[in-house]
Design goal:
This protein has 494 residues and is an alpha+beta fold. The protein folds into three domains: 240 residues, Up-down Bundle (Rhopdopsin 7-helix transmembrane proteins); 74 residues, Single alpha-helices involved in coiled-coils or other helix-helix interfaces, CATH 1.20.5; 137 residues, Histidine kinase-like ATPase, C-terminal domain (Heat Shock Protein 90), CATH 3.30.565.10. Strand 2 and strand 3 form a beta hairpin. The N and C termini lie far apart (95 Å). The mean pLDDT is 83.
């Protein structure tokens, strides 16, 4: 068996290099995925290790081929280049293991580990190269020392890092990926702890005793075969562990779907509650109108009827008295008409349709200011865009609700209203100097706590016409409501 592998050592080096090179390519192709996993963030050095170390083994293969064809002559630059490639690949392996252990947060620890190991290797390498041994012996010793000082620590760090990542994968429910990571750790452990320990015979301890020749005598095949086998195993399970990207992506998609479904359910519940509140408000408004019609208009009409009957009798006996009664009835009728106009304006101000949004706001704020003694200022900028009746009604109702909330709850003495028109947008700003409130507690629906349906209704109204309503408030600092509504639709008064 030993003779068979020795005769076909070129194939061994080929598959040895191929395993790591393919692993590097596989990781490179998957690395573009966005991921929050520490394992994913540690992969770039593994790409460097796979590609460079695979190329190094192919370089060894071509040296063997060249020696068989042209004889054992090797240019002077070849061995230093090979040593640099070997050391660079193992430094990448150390970086991979260190990153797995430290994560992306502990950058100082990561850099410290790399610097310490690299410094130890450089110092020891200088001692080896300036040894009085023959050049060939020093080159071999440098190769062996590099494997001891870089490959074995790199493999050890990688094993520790992969075991740490395995625990993390188990915690987030990726058991299959955790199994692959564990097997990859076993492969790297054997690759470094056994494959690199049995290096070429040299002056470096313990390669004088534990070396590739001893390995061949013990196991009957070259150590390169063992390294190739562990490289293949590591490549397979590292590549399989890249499924973590797919699993993570599926988990994130599921989380987004669940969040979207939960948000949709919350919105459905909110809309249902708003609809329920709207029906209650409509019924309450109808009851109020019925009471006012009964108490005010009904009494006025009753008084008119009685007065007309009395006047029909008086006009025959006392003409002057009849004229006086007619004047009283006329005043009573005028009061009734005024009361009806007030009721109609409360339901839908005619100014909104006849004169536009700005005029309706000025009429409403003037009435509120007179009734409650609150100083209300309106500032207007821009032209008069053509608005749909829906947009006019929505902006007016939001402003009306905002002012009503100030009157009822804010204890404010001043309200500033800004209404700006642009070519494609209406901006409404309502700000008061009242007592304010905590938006985090008031606007979030919680069990057993009354919901601010008026405020939520303003947000809902704005969304119905493609707009937004943002509410800002702090206790003791007043409240600010900003509304942005797109301008579109049929041409109507603004």
């Amino acid at each position: 068996m030993a003779e068979l592998f020795t005769r076909n050592i070129i194939l061994v080096y080929f598959f040895y290099g191929l395993s790591f090179f393919v692993m590097g390519l596989a990781v490179l192709l998957e690395f573009g995925h966005s991921s929050k996993l520490d394992f994913a963030r540690a992969l770039p050095p593994l790409i460097g290790f796979g590609l460079i170390h695979g190329s190094h083994e192919w370089f060894e293969m071509f040296l063997i081929i060249n020696n068989r064809i042209s004889g054992p002559f090797t240019p002077s630059w070849v061995l230093p280049v090979r040593l640099i490639a070997l050391a660079t690949s193992f430094l990448f392996l150390i970086a991979f293991g260190a990153r797995l252990i430290t994560g992306v947060e502990k950058r100082k620890l990561y850099v410290g580990m790399l610097s310490t190991i690299a410094a130890i290797w450089v110092i020891g390498l200088l001692g080896v190269l300036f040894n009085q041994s023959p050049t060939q012996a020093r080159i071999i010793a440098a190769d062996v020392y590099t494997r001891y000082a870089l490959a074995i620590p790199g493999a050890a760090l990688t094993v520790c890092g992969l075991i740490i990542q395995r625990r993390k994968f188990i915690k987030i429910g990726m058991s299959s990926v955790a199994q692959d990571v564990l097997l990859a750790a076993v492969a790297f452990g054997l690759y470094g702890g056994v494959g690199q320990l049995f290096a070429s015979p040299s002056i470096i301890f313990p390669s004088e005793y534990l070396n590739s020749e001893l390995f061949l005598r013990w196991f009957g095949f070259p150590v390169q075969v063992f390294r190739a086998g562990m490289a293949t195993m590591a490549a397979i399970f590292i590549t399989r562990s890249l499924r973590a990207f797919e699993v993570e992506s599926n988990q994130r998609i599921k989380e987004l779907r669940d969040a979207q479904l939960a948000e949709q359910n919350r919105l459905d519940e909110l809309r249902a509650e708003l609809l329920h509140r709207t029906v209650i408000a409509q019924e309450s408004e109808r009851q109020r109108i019925a009471r006012e019609l009964h108490d005010e208009t009904g009494q006025t009409l009753t008084a008119l009827g009685m007065g007309l009957r009395g006047m029909s009798e008086t006009i025959l006996t006392n003409r002057d008295r009849a004229v006086e009664q007619a004047n009283q009835l006329e005043k009573l009728a005028a009061d009734g008409v005024e009361e009806l106009q007030r009721m109609v304006s409360g339901l839908h101000p005619p100014q909104l349709d006849d004169l536009g949004l700005l005029a309706a706001l000025r009429w409403y704020t003037s009435d509120i200011s007179n009734r409650f003694g609150i100083n209300i200022n309106i500032v207007h900028q821009g032209g008069k865009p053509m608005l749909t009746s829906d947009v006019r009604a929505v902006v007016f109702r939001i402003a009306q609700e905002a002012i009503t909330n100030v009157v009822r709850h804010a204890e404010a003495s001043k309200i500033d209203i800004q209404l700006d028109y642009s070519e494609d947008n209406i901006y409404l700003r309502v700000e008061d100097n009242g007592q304010g409130f905590n938006t985090d507690t008031v606007l979030k629906k919680k069990p057993g706590k009354p919901t601010a349906w008026g405020l939520l209704g303003m947000v809902e109204r704005a969304s119905l016409v493609g707009g937004t309503c943002n509410i800002f408030s702090h206790p003791g600092k007043g409240t600010l409501i900003e509304v942005n509504v797109p301008v579109f639709g049929e041409k109507q008064n603004a």
